[in-house]
Design goal:
With 462 residues, the chain is mainly alpha-helical. It has 16 helices and two strands. Strand 1 and strand 2 form a beta hairpin.
């Protein structure tokens, strides 16, 4: 399909027409395959870290919240690029699309420079707050420093990919993640064990391999954006830095980043209480279990991408009925997938944990966590789909509210269940379940309210 706006061709990107189920398939399937390999990438890292010992696993687990802050900033700007670019495409506004491209790349470069420069101010204090010490602290710091150096590539990849996602094109990112997975299989042992005369870097080598793969991704995705059907060199040259465009990106991106950052904060808080109640073996078990959860959630990530893209374009086109249908189908598909994942994970939990660590204390703790957490697996569907819908209709601030609710409230819940009721680490696991389901109720009610308001507004405009 070829669309025209002011004489400019815009093809193969219109999600305002056609069957929504077909759009889900064309967007979500490649995205899910890509994220499968992205998660397998992390799984490989964890397996190699496990060969280095439990201290390496624990160090990487404690470093996860800091690593995730980098991902949060990157993902927030990427989501902003997807939502705003999708809205421009829905409006058939090529000039706005290129103005957004120009300014989002500029912001990505600024963020990619500032985060590493400020790292000496926040790395050690955050590890100290997590209670890390000894070899766990040393390994975690070395790993995280190297990751921080590659921030610019993480941010650029998310932003560039967000502009591709807005066009409904999820294949370049899928291909990059597949290539990156196989490259990581080679680079990890090369740097970890010092093959071919290279220095033995241990866990730092895992981080270096990740940064090099991200650098390749920036080049690969940038090429595909340049070759995409909507990209027009002359329109990009006509674009300029715009305070209004930058504000629009930040208004959309900061709430998304903060929402993701609260997840990192939540993991940080969980790690603190796990160390308090159980010790490093259970911290390692929690880190491994999160990898397994990520595998189960992979298909739903593709669904979130599809929801954000389809809703954004139809918001630009002022088509409320397709927005509502997209939300409904996104939740339906996601719940079916997560129920299947739950059926698989619950009986196989101990065997899955042993892939990463054969320490029986780690296996036992991880198995208990996964079997309790399985009760909350479907909550992530409702939460993420509703947040994606709200981002697509330019209502991103709720993501921060629900994120703070889910990640800060546990402070009281964990103390109540773990200390006051003497449930220990079981209080942490059951606290996560209770908080997530209550958050689902809030998100459903709020999103219903916003969609009703939007429908009234759009009907008044017609």
């Amino acid at each position: 399909m070829r669309l025209m706006k002011d004489g400019v061709a815009m093809k193969n990107s219109d999600l305002t027409e056609g069957r929504i189920s077909s759009h889900f398939k064309s967007i979500a399937v490649p995205a899910s395959i890509g994220f499968l390999f992205n998660t397998l990438f992390n799984v490989v890292d964890s397996i190699y870290a496990g060969r280095l010992g439990t201290d390496a696993l624990a160090g990487m687990a404690i470093s996860f919240p800091i690593f995730f802050l980098v991902i949060s900033l990157s993902s927030g700007l990427g989501n902003a690029s997807t939502a705003l670019a999708a809205i421009s495409i829905g409006k058939k506004d090529s000039k706005s699309f290129h103005q957004l491209l120009y300014n989002s790349i500029f912001i990505a470069l600024i963020v990619g420079i500032i985060v590493p420069l400020l790292s000496p101010l926040y790395l050690k204090p955050m590890f100290a707050l997590a209670g890390a010490e000894g070899d766990v602290l040393a390994i975690g710091l070395d790993y995280t420093r190297m990751i921080i150096y590659g921030t610019i590539f993480f941010v650029l990849n998310f932003v560039i990919n967000g502009l591709l996602y807005a066009q409904g094109n999820t294949k370049p990112f899928r291909n990059y993640l597949i290539i990156g997975f196989f490259a990581n299989l080679i680079l990890d042992p090369l740097f970890i064990f010092g093959w071919f005369g290279l220095p033995n870097l241990g866990a730092t080598g895992i981080a270096l391999a990740t940064v090099l793969v991200q650098m390749f991704g920036t080049i690969y995705l940038g090429y595909h954006l340049y070759k995409s059907s909507l990209f027009k060199k002359e329109e990009l040259k006509a674009s300029s830095l715009s305070w209004e465009t930058n504000k629009d990106i930040l208004r959309q991106g900061i709430p998304s980043s903060l929402n993701n950052a609260t997840i990192a904060l939540g993991v940080f808080i969980i790690n603190y209480f796990v160390v308090l109640y159980a010790g490093s073996d259970t911290v390692a078990a929690y880190g491994v279990s999160m990898r397994i959860e990520q595998l189960a959630l992979i298909p739903t990530i593709g669904i979130n991408v599809a929801v954000l893209t389809i809703v954004g374009q139809n918001f630009g086109a002022k088509n409320i009925d397709r927005i509502i249908e997209t939300r409904r189908k996104g939740m339906l598909y996601g719940v079916i997938i997560m129920l299947i994942g739950t059926i698989v994970i619950v009986p196989l939990a101990p065997y899955l944990i042993r892939i990463f660590d054969t320490n029986e204390a780690v296996v036992r703790a991880g198995t208990i966590y996964l079997r309790i957490e399985a009760i909350a697996f479907t909550t992530y569907i409702f939460l993420n789909v509703n947040v994606s819908v709200l981002q697509g209709i330019k209502k991103p601030k709720f993501a921060v509210v629900i994120g703070v609710y889910r990640q800060i409230l546990p402070l009281g819940i964990f103390i109540l269940l773990g200390t006051t009721l003497k449930m220990g680490v079981y209080g942490v696991w059951w606290g996560i379940v209770l908080i997530n389901w209550s958050a689902v109720f809030i998100s459903v009610v709020y999103t219903n309210k916003e969609l009703k308001k939007l429908k009234l507004t759009m009907n008044d405009d017609l």
